[in-house]
Amino acid sequence: MKKVIIIGAGTAGLAAGIRLLTDGYDVSIYEKNEKVGGRMFQIEEKGFQFDVGPTIVMMPEVFNDVFEYSGVNPKDYIDMTLLNPFNTIYYADQTKLEISSELPALVKQLEAFGPKETEGYLTYLAEVYGKYQQAKFNFLDKSYRNPFEFFNIKSMYQVLKLKTLNSAYSSISKYVKDEKLRQALSFQTLYIGVSPYAGPSIYTIIPMIELLYGVHYIKGGMYQMALAMERRFLELGGKLYLDSPVQEILLTGNKATGILVNNKPIYADIVLANADFSYVMKNLIKDESKKGKYTTKKIDKMKYSTSAFILYLGLSKKYKTNVHAIRFASDFRQNIDELDTGIVPEDPSFYMYSPSQIDETVAPKDKEIIYVLVPVPNMQTSDAEWLIGDTESYKDKILDKIEQIEGFEDIKDNIEVLKIYTPKTFNYKFNLEYAATFGLKPIISQSLYFRPQTKFKTIENLYFAGSSIHPGAGVPIVLLSAKLSCKDITKDHPND
User: Distance between CA 134 and CA 140 in Å, rounded?
Assistant: First the structure.
């Protein structure tokens, strides 16, 4: 039985552990934090249970597949519900738009913008659905172990068919002309940390997936997915070591042979790194000559996704909103441009998450949770230091913006619990290079074959999974990276 060490009990680390145990490997996970989940983390205080990082459940079949692969019913591990409506959009002019999961209700909402806009919106859904099927079967479900698997006539033809050179926003603009609808169909690129004005048009599949496949909610919040994976991993006989930061990946020649933890070597046949790719390359592989093209100099020159400033609010009264909501800045384009140029936005767009709207288990009775995520520049592009005074000032700015939304005028008077994560928190808590909360920026030069792959080329027995690895960021896609990594491991190292 071959032994696998996984660095990091994040989403991909846990999912990979379950798959490899099912395939007959001996698997141990070493995690730096006191509990599992990576960015799929949780804060608990005074009966409030806050999801720390990801909150949106899309492509539920990918979540379920982790458990189905190991031979159990996902319903015995996670309780998933379809949300309808799944999002409320608050515009700066005090208007709002609720996005329904039901086609008749959605069409009625769209017809308020006129028949041409409705037709354009529905045309977008149909055409982008086709692109999604192309991307899924030709790119998302495969890794690139050598250049010829990407640079061939079939792959190049499929890339051209996807028309990825346009930005998401410009692609959306061909279908709808109303600026509010354009924003509603393009902001989702921020889910993976890239501007809709710069992100490739393929990412217009994200709002299509929301609308055609639905947005779901896991009872108890997203952290229940991490706990469910931990439970299944342990049931299968996996070994989990918390509070165990890895100091180094041990190499013998060009082979990964184990890790160093607490100055103690631990040996294995295979090492799978779920820690942030850039952090691993800069800190855990000590010999610069073994890094291939991903030298420290190269890592520092790569482009990184946005970071996040997050308020976790435990509120002493109920507020009426949806589980998911977006508040747009008065000048959305300026707001997004600021993120790319290192300016902390004065008038930011932000995302609000309130699971207590439908889930009584995450907050005390008659109380509310609201999580407010503000995209801010990463620490590569911005010189913001996020000192105590800066953090307090920005917190007040965001709370002032929330109070301008109808129904939230007294939110500051009802804060019972307040926690804040700044880019600095993400940097030290989760070892995220430049505090890029979504990893490497998914631009064309860092996507598909040009993104780090699951199998590392210059070090044998070393594999990767996570948001900076192909196919990319977002929980469902990260789960796919774990699946691809495990396929590569079982291909290269079959159990005897």
Answer: 9
